[in-house]
Amino acid sequence: xxxxxxxxxxxxxxxxxxxxxxxxxxxxxxxxxxxxxxxxxxxxxxxxxxxxxxxxxxxxxxxxxxxxxxxxxxxxxxxxxxxxxxxxxxxxxxxxxxxxxxxxxxxxxxxxxxxxxxxxxxxxxxxxxxxxxxxxxxxxxxxxxxxxxxxxxxx
Length: 155
Known about the structure:
This protein has about 160 residues and is of the alpha+beta class. The protein has a single domain (about 10-35, about 70-155), classed as Alpha-D-Glucose-1,6-Bisphosphate, Chain A, domain 4, CATH 3.30.530. Helix content is about 30%, strand content about 30%. The protein has helices at about 20-30, 30-35, 125-155; strands at about 10-15, 40, 50-55, 65-75, 75-80, 100-105, 110-120. A hairpin with a 4-residue loop joins strand 6 (about 100-105) and strand 7. Helix 1 (about 20-30) crosses helix 2 (about 30-35) and helix 2 crosses helix 3 (about 125-155). The longest helix is centred in the C-terminal third of the chain and has 28 residues, at about 125-155.
């Protein structure tokens, strides 16, 4: 039970000056995702498959990236699960319930509304929940800026 009142979900939204099809490619093409997310991925994203790679962000270069691709509904919805803020290379996170990261795309007059939701923080161990939520909340704020910058530089 979530006794410390840490919220269960992170929600972010950004209006991107790019068509839905372009935003979709930036999200689901593993090479493009890696560029803006700052991760070197080993293989293309496939629903039901594990995606692995190496983080490239300064200070995180020694950390592996691992997610399970849950769903890809072309130009509408992309989802994966992962272990949030898994930053201790010596800790085994596989016993924890992963959080669900969902991206929803919606066409707008100016381009595309990208909505991000990460949920399931209430299922994390008490000792990790608050720190993981805070780190990912700030991380998703940066990543929304990163994808906007990426799309502006790679129309």
